[in-house]
Amino acid sequence: QLGLKTETLGHQIHFFEEVDSTQRIAAKLAYEGAPEGTLVIAEEQKAGRGRLDRKWFSPQGTGIWMSLILRPPIPPQQAPQLTLLVAVAVSQAIQEVTGLVPDIKWPNDILLHGKKCVGILTELQADPDRVRSVIIGIGINVNQTSAQFPEDICDIATSLAIEKGERIKRAPLIQEILLQLERLYKQYLEHGFRPIKLLWEGYAVSIGKPVTARTLGKVIRGIARGITDDGLLILEDEQNQLHYIHSADIQL
Ligand code: BT5
């Protein structure tokens, strides 16, 4: 019903009207052996989540709430690369379908005019030396109006429809995301992260700017200098010391 043009991604789709979180369902399916490319989509999430147990607002019928299972043959420390790969694929798809040009804020936010319209959550099932599966959660605000965002996020969140000034059909956007993802993922498996990294840097808003990184234990201030080949953010502090940030909240 989505009219997919992909070879493997999305060829098994589990569709739900209402779930707690597509991420939880996809993780369970992955654990039970679901093949690469399995996709879980819901019209509404009652307990959509972000990183560090934060909530992801996922109201009925206005967004794309989905989780995809990948099984890349990579060691766990390379998994952050996939978050960046997905951010590039979603940005390209948004640009292709709506003509809007998004910015990526490391590691996992896609912004339009400085406000967040997409969140990406990458979770791993892994042995010490090998990834068994990566569950990629993608949340996109598509057709919400400003008034439909709850008070605590209305200043920081936006939707494609708000920025475009018209409603956007969701199915063609899902198609395009999976198509771009499949293309980049193939390229990644054949040629590694470097080509993806270049594309990512083209969309990144943080590079060369002062950034405050809040990791679990500490706060580091510095200028964002780029990302490493593993997908970590490089921050240079006032003493010209370099810090490599794995997955933190950054403030521009
Ligand atoms: C993220 O977390 O941005 C990852 C969001 C991933 C959501 C998808 S939807 C499908 C799949 N199933 C799930 O249960 N999750 C995934 P983080 O960087 O931690 O950002 C969370 C923060 O974004 C919250 O604390 C709010 O401030 C803000 N936020 C919540 N809902 C939002 C929304 N709809 N639009 C914009 N910002 C939002």
TrEMBL record:
Residues 1-189 form the BPL/LPL catalytic domain. It is an enzyme of class 6 (ligase). Signal peptide: none annotated. Transmembrane segments: none annotated. Keywords: ATP-binding, Biotin, DNA-binding, Ligase, Nucleotide-binding, Repressor, Transcription, Transcription regulation. Biotin binds at Q45, R49, G50, R51, K116. It catalyses: biotin + L-lysyl-[protein] + ATP = N(6)-biotinyl-L-lysyl-[protein] + AMP + diphosphate + H(+). The keyword Transferase does not apply. Acts both as a biotin--[acetyl-CoA-carboxylase] ligase and a repressor. Belongs to the biotin--protein ligase family. This is Bifunctional ligase/repressor BirA. It comes from Geobacillus thermodenitrificans. The gene is birA. The chain holds residues 78 to 329 of 329 of the full protein.
